[in-house]
Amino acid sequence: MPSSSRRSQVPRDRLVTLIGKPDCHLCDDAQIVVEKVCDELGVPWELKDINQDPQLHDQYWEQIPVVLVDGAQHTFWRVNENRLRKALTG
Fold it and tell me: Of 31, 39, 61, 88, which is most buried with the most CB atoms under 10 A?
């Protein structure tokens, strides 16, 4: 799907994935932001535990928490609320 088509999607047709692990304070902070923005916009989101998926572990271990928007990496470590909102609505 071309990027221009993705941008024109309504927020509820998007998907945010938060990749983290238990007992990670940055992951907890990221989840608060993801929940807030996704709840406000009606965007579905999911949480994936990096310890439960060897491929995610190999790919993202040094970057967690990682946020994906529609499967593409959006950010890692710290989630900026305004930047995530813009990515989902812009």
Answer: 88
Residues 34-78 pLDDT 10s: 999 999 999 999 999 999 999 999 999 999 999 999 999 999 999
β-pairing verdict for 16-20 and 72-76: unpaired
Q: Taking the complete model, does pTM exceed 0.85, yes or no?
A: yes
Cβ-contact 77, 33 below 8 angstroms: no
Contact 20, 76 (CB under 8 A): no
Distance CA 64, CA 31 (A): 12
If you search the block for the tokens 């993705």, which residue do you land on? 6
Looking up residue 53, the CATH number of its domain turns out to be: 3.40.30.10
